[in-house]
Write a structure and sequence with these properties.
DNA-binding; alpha+beta; five-stranded mixed β-sheet
Length: 668
DNA sequence: GGGGCACCACATT
DNA sequence: TTCCAAATGTGGTGCCCC
């Protein structure tokens, strides 16, 4: 396989900056003639040693691992593995459609151009729209210095000391964007915009009706845009959208490039085209294809088709081969509904809980406002966190019903956040998905698994999920809506209630430790408890991606005084099993089960555990962590489930309580 | 084994 | 001196459930 792996050296040595790949070291319109090496060195020097830089290196290392993995896979391939590609290519080739003419238009340095238009004194100056932390757009004057979009402002300043900064003004950009769109409408009423400054137009009809060429439409459209907005744009015309987009970049700024609707023209065009120019191929994919298969141009995709088919999924392979053939979308895509709505904020890193919750409150408010503006509600809330070390985490919970109010969002979001603390954070975000319009009639999703559980466990059970929610919701919000926020939680919550007919029962399974309502009434310092008890990191660290995964921890919720139950999912292969043992032992004792001796040791070891103290304060447990006699008697009198001895198949080994519960339950 | 879901990485502007 | 965004979509993966 060595022939396929044209593994390039990745720099290093006495020129470390050469291997520091950033988004801005790639070619971008207006950056020809820039001393790339100098720019790269400046960026490297300014980034070196920062948290951001360290995180980038971490990410690079993960990419490298993936590359190694793919190389190893590649080396194992036999002749049979790599013989199934020609049919695929023929199929794709058969789908080629040269009957449509697509035009892609892209405003030149849009934000910067609008600012200059509004304030002509900026003309000719190197301009950056953005802030010291991030540049959204750089004018062409600034690009000559290597300054570009997505670059932090302070690096821009270093590259170009005279760089002028302007704060973005989206209302302005929207206004100009609308002017441009009115022009697009004339050429294709079904045009679709991909951002404020870019759009695709199917100009097939216009060309036929008016008997003009794509080139003529392009010139005319650019003229009209300039006339209507005072701004310039660049245009690409090609038989499909993928190529049209590449074409619009060729003669930027204020230019156009037309690729005729001929197969040869297309294949010639893509033959030397770097894969990075293709939309959808970013930094990581580019590196992977290059370092595993030596692919740098689109045509090489076809040369390495056999390997691509053998190494990647069908979807990915189809995409890669289409790139090689110069195929792309030719039909106007159906209007797609919004899938999610989100907002996020970066701030200076903080580990101050109150500040973090304050930020969360603001985010919830923003998101609720945005949702309500569009009359949308959603079911899945995703919390995004970026730690001070730039590590990004997302945590999601799905509510039983559709929500959009700030209060509902916040209850859910708080639970997700609490489960992650303590953390030093530099960014938080909230995203709502599983959307539906308010006018729609959102069917409450059925819990098939839950139904099944009920059928299996207790036909007489008449559990009311929502009414089962805690009544001590301090927020006063309608906790019923999101009492159980995930399917698992609904299942477990109902299972708990079902098994015991007693909300004081604890339930756990291999990966879930759930603590229902009773905990919610404990007046403890929730922040400290929830963070001391079983954080994701405590239980094995962050889940790694894909095949490299060596530790598994998933989590959903933990102790939360606002909910009627809480939960924590932890992997059985916890790196700190003691804590899980302890918790399970604790659950055992609360349920009135006899504990295997190993739990006693665990408890001794963790006698200083904060929660134990709190429980003692509550007089639920005695000094050894067992239920007090009074509480035990009370529990036994109200719990119909017979007390069982928890057997240990192997001395000192942890037995998941859930297997016990589940077995027990199924027998009923 | 397939569908649904959650999580995450990647991509684009 | 210090400083690296926001919004959104897609696809892969792994898990659970049927």
């Amino acid at each position: 396989m060595s022939s396929a792996a044209g593994a390039p050296s990745d720099g290093g040595g006495d020129r470390p900056w050469q291997s520091y790949h950033t988004a801005y070291t790639n070619g971008k319109a207006g950056m020809e003639g820039v001393d790339k090496e100098k720019v790269q060195k400046v960026i490297y020097e300014m980034s070196k040693g920062s948290k951001y830089f360290e995180n980038e290196q971490k990410k690079e290392a993960i990419t490298k691992q993936k590359i190694e993995h793919l190389r190893a896979q590649c080396a194992k391939l036999n002749d049979n593995d790599i013989s199934h590609f020609q049919k695929k290519i023929l199929e794709l080739e058969a789908s080629r459609d040269l009957s449509k003419i697509w035009l892609h238009t892209d405003m030149d340095a849009f934000y910067a151009a609008v600012e200059i238009l509004e304030n002509p004194s900026l003309k000719g100056k190197p301009l950056a729209v953005g802030s010291m932390s991030m540049i959204a757009t750089a004018s062409y004057e600034a690009r000559k210095f290597g300054v570009r979009a997505a670059m932090p402002g302070f690096i821009g300043c270093k590259l170009c000391p005279d760089l002028v900064f302007v704060r973005p003004n989206f209302e302005r950009y929207t206004h100009y964007s609308e002017l441009a769109r009115k022009v697009f409408q004339r050429y294709d009423p079904n045009f679709f915009a991909t951002s404020l400054d870019e759009a695709y137009l199917n100009i097939t009809e216009v060309c036929i009706e008016r008997g003009i060429t794509g080139e003529e439409v392009a010139s005319e459209l650019r003229g009209a845009i300039h006339q209507e907005t005072g701004l310039t744009c660049s245009v690409g015309v090609a038989p499909n959208r993928m190529i049209a987009k590449v074409c619009s970049d060729i003669n930027k700024p204020n230019g156009q490039f037309i690729l005729p609707n001929e197969r040869d023209a297309v294949t010639t065009f893509v033959s030397t085209l770097p894969i990075r120019k293709i939309g959808g191929i970013g930094k990581v994919t580019e590196q992977m294809l290059h370092q595993v298969l030596g692919i740098t141009t689109c045509q090489q995709m076809l040369q390495k088709a056999a390997f691509l088919c053998a190494l990647f999924s069908e979807g990915s392979t189809d995409f890669f081969l289409s790139v090689g053939l110069g195929l792309g979308g030719t039909e106007t895509p159906e209007h797609r509904l919004r899938k999610s709505m989100s907002c996020e904020r970066t701030f200076s890193a903080t580990n101050d809980y109150s500040l973090q919750f304050e930020k969360l409150d603001n985010l919830a408010e923003n998101l609720a406002d945005d949702l309500q503006k569009e009359c949308l509600k959603g079911r899945t809330l995703t919390l995004k966190l970026k730690t001070a070390a730039f590590e990004v985490r997302t945590r999601a919970a799905t509510a039983q019903s559709y929500i959009s109010s700030k209060e509902d969002i916040l209850i859910c979001a708080k639970k997700l956040l609490k489960a992650e603390l303590p953390l030093s954070l530099r960014l938080m975000g909230l995203r709502m998905s599983h959307l539906c319009g308010e006018k729609d009639d959102p069917t409450i999703p059925t819990q098939k698994t839950l139904d099944r559980f009920f059928r299996l466990s207790d036909n007489n059970s008449n559990v009311n999920r929502t009414n089962g929610a805690s009544s001590n919701d301090a927020s006063g919000g309608d906790d019923c809506n999101i009492g159980a926020t995930t399917k698992d939680e609904c299942l477990i919550h109902d299972a708990v209630t079902d098994i015991s007919s007693d909300q004081h029962t604890f339930f756990s399974n291999d990966e879930n430790i759930f603590v229902p309502e009773e905990r919610s009434s404990v007046n403890y310092d929730n922040e400290v408890v929830s963070s001391n008890l079983l954080t994701c990191d405590d239980l094995g660290g962050t889940k790694l991606d894909g095949n490299t995964s060596n530790s598994k921890v998933t989590q959903s919720e933990k102790f939360d005084d606002l909910s009627h139950f809480t939960s924590c999912k932890a992997s059985a292969s916890s790196s700190k099993p003691n804590q899980q043992f302890w918790v399970d032992g604790y659950i055992c004792s609360l349920c009135g089960f006899e504990l295997p001796p190993c739990f006693e040791e665990e408890r001794q070891e963790h006698s200083d555990f904060h929660l134990a103290e709190l429980l003692q304060q509550e007089e639920a447990l005695d000094s050894s962590g067992h239920l007090t006699k009074e509480r035990l008697a009370e529990r036994q009198s109200t719990t119909p489930t017979p007390k069982k001895k928890l057997k240990s198949s192997k001395e000192g080994k942890h037995i998941p309580i859930d297997s016990f519960f589940l077995k027990h339950n199924k027998k009923l």
